[in-house]
Amino acid sequence: MAKTSQRLLDPHFVSKLARLDLRARLVVDGFLTGLHKSPYHGFSVEFAEHRQYMPGDPLRHLDWKVLAKSDRKYLKQYEEETNLRATLLIDTSASMSYSSHGLTKLDYARQLAASLAYLMLRQKDAVGMYAFANGRGELIPPRSTPSHLRQLLVLLERLEAAGGTDFASSLHALAERVKQRGLIVILSDLLDDTERIASAIHHFRHRKHEVLVFHVLDPQETTFQFEREATYIDLESGDRVTTRPQELRVDYRSRVKGWMDKIREFCVEKQADYVAVSTDTPYDRALLEYLSKRARLL
Amino acid sequence: MFSFLNPGFLWALPLAGIPILIHFLSKRRLPEIRFPTVMFLRALEPREIRRLRLREILLLILRTLAILLLVCAFARPSVQPKAAAARAAAAVAVVIDDSESMGAMDEQGRPRIEGARERGLAIVDAARGGDEIAITTTTGPDAPLANRSGDRVRLTRTVRQIGATWLPGNVEQALERARRFLGRSSLRAHEVYVISDFQATNFTKGAREKVALLSRAGARVVLLPVVSSRVPNHAIEDLDPALRPGPQGKGLEMRARLVNHADAPSERLSVRARLGDALIGGGDVTLQADESRWASLPIDWRAGAGAAAEIKGKAPVVVESDVDALAGDDRRFAVLGAPRRLRVLRIVESRAGEPASRFTALALDPAQDGSGGYVVETGTPASLLGLGRSRYDVVLLEDIASLSSDAEGRLRSFLREGGGLVIGLGPHADLDYYGHKLFPGVVDLALEGTERASEGQAFEIRARAPAHPILEGLSLAVGSPLTQSRLTAVSKGRITSSRAEAIVTTTGGLPVVVAAQQVSIFLGSFSDDWGDLPYSGAFVPLVRGLVDHAARAASLESGDLSLVGRPPTAHLDTAPPGAVVVRGPESYRSQATVASDGSGFRAVADAPAPVPGFYVFEAGGREAAVAAVNPDPIESDLRPVSMESLQAGSPDPPRSILTVRSLRTHLRDMRQGRELWLLFLVLAAVALAGELALASARTVAP
Questions:
Q1: CA within 20 to 30 Å of B289's CA: A89, B37, B509, B585, which one?
Q2: ipTM, interface predicted TM-score of the complex
């Protein structure tokens, strides 16, 4: 386990993150106190006010002392300092297995997810994980216990890239399952129909989730620096295209850039954060850039 | 038909498969790269990939094509107009014009015969192994000079040895030789190449018909004109060997007939007469376009001979003019004798006690001393009984009713001996006698009565053949009036054969002056019975012309005029003491045959004269006579016949090829086909250039 943690969590990287606080921008449901203001009057540690009992309120929140003294039924309300409920969504479709320099996109996403999980747990935030592919996914609900990290890391270790993405179906299914508002962190190459991706993100936003998209791509996917003519096989669909990279490179790059711009635009439109990372981008730089930007936004 | 002259190179054609092989090998060995998605590549496919694939195919085609074309170029592709003509051996007759005119120089001083040889060699060079080739010339013997293509060396040597001769060309005979050669050949493909300057005078109707005949017989006739554009073209066509008294009987003059064949007036021509190296006379002459006339050249005989006594002998004189394209006709040889006085027996009849008119006597010998070149003796028809060639040169019958049979017989005998006859018809002439008795055998002229002009009217007479010697004393053009005098009647004559020619006619076409061999006929009256002609200025030159023609015709008949290609002929006054040997230029030497003629002996060499010049007849080791030999003046007129006239009347008209280069191309097309290697090479270069341009147009991004 320790070995797994060491592999997944670069200590040097984690030490850098420790100097920054990851603060959720939005108020989410949570049980644990933290740095975030909750919009709900829950039943946490810090008393806020009383209110008159209404039929149907749970009796366990009755202030028995007030009832004994005044024979009036009041409920105790607390202004709780809630923690972030974050769910890390990891794309395990076959396309994530691509690597042009040793580190697959899935590896990169896996390590980035572990880093985020560690960071969030240090902040007492609840962290869940959802590994999805082919319209299905495996969900670990968010928890904030330190031991939860192990469970997450075990899942991350098990992940294997296979099957198609069916991004939208997976995310729509998750959106229905995650009731409490929180942070949705998507780590994917987003190789799906952009309209469907936008629809899924919109679904999360509709349920008041904060959405953070890490668009994980291999450098070759953006630069298409292949030299000689070759047959290119789609990792997911198996489609084959034989072509000369040097002939298509300019148009290819232009088209990929247009695609990324389109995703970025609808993320902005849906008030989701979009960070394009390449598998050769250091984790710390990617996270620090993101966290710095979050810090400026808060 | 398309073929390759070096088909061995076609083994390299599979090389064209190299680009295709490389293409498919590279396709087969393409690396497979697993990639996250090909949707972007797919998205590009309709627009880009299809274009790239098309370009790839184009590149492949261009590369393959370039190699194909290159290999084909080395294999020397050629197209042949007709498969049969290209494959089958051909019987080829080459007619090379080697007549005198082929010695004419162009502006660069290159004789036409050189161009002819060049063309002949091109034809020989292009011959294939199975071809049969015959070479014949227009002046050559009655057999090809060389045939069979097996001995190409001999053919080449034969062509190289052909030079311009001094002879007139006989194209018709040469074409007949070609026709016979082709007829004997067993080969089916026949070709005839005619290399000539296509002189109109040589390409007679018969020659043109031969060309059409060859064409119709299936031979491919190709005309190869060798012409130059040098315009000046004059010639000394003839010399009168008889010296004449000069104007007013002073001094001497000789006459040279000059002709300008050009379509523009000549420059001022300097004509010189030489006796040996000494200049003895000459003058300047300017000729109009297409003009031919006699020019009188004053002669100072003493300048050459040193003594007037020399005049009595025979003197070889060379007359030269400025040299033009054809130098051979700008010099002419003549043996001049003592000033000749034509002896004319004038036969008249006195009627009703009135003396006969003397107009002709006055016209010929006004001073009655022979100083005008004519000695006129007047007699009656009975005088003809004593007629002899030794006494008279010409008999002039002037309005004689008829002749007795004895007189007529004597007259015919006189004509046979070379004498001349001038007949002036008139109101008293018995036309029936002349038409039916005297004229048959003398002149082909029928008489049909007398034609009289309307009351108060007169016939207008015009020159029909103004260049004829009869009219040489008159400067006339075709159709110009002979005289302004009135002619009220003429005997109505009709020429019945081409041996007689109407020289002067009325405007209505009735002949007035008719010329035939040794005979001149005047169908008007020499007196003033039928008008006032004797009082006109045209009368004297006309009468002298009639007499001169009759006398000259006699001279021609006697063989004094020698041409190149014919045996030299000379007149000997006395019988030679032994065998006569003839010596001439270029080591010419021949025996001569001597026979008596009416006025002495006629010596004819056994061998033809090969070149112009003086040929000396020696008898008993001494010079007996000299003959001047000249080229036939027919070669002087260099004007070509129109190609259209040669191409007419043939289903497959003869092709005319102007340049040697075009001829070589034609021969290559005929023998080997049109070579296309250069075209293939250019196309290969174009294909390669296209490939390079297409390949360099790639959109390579860093």
A1: B509
A2: 0.74
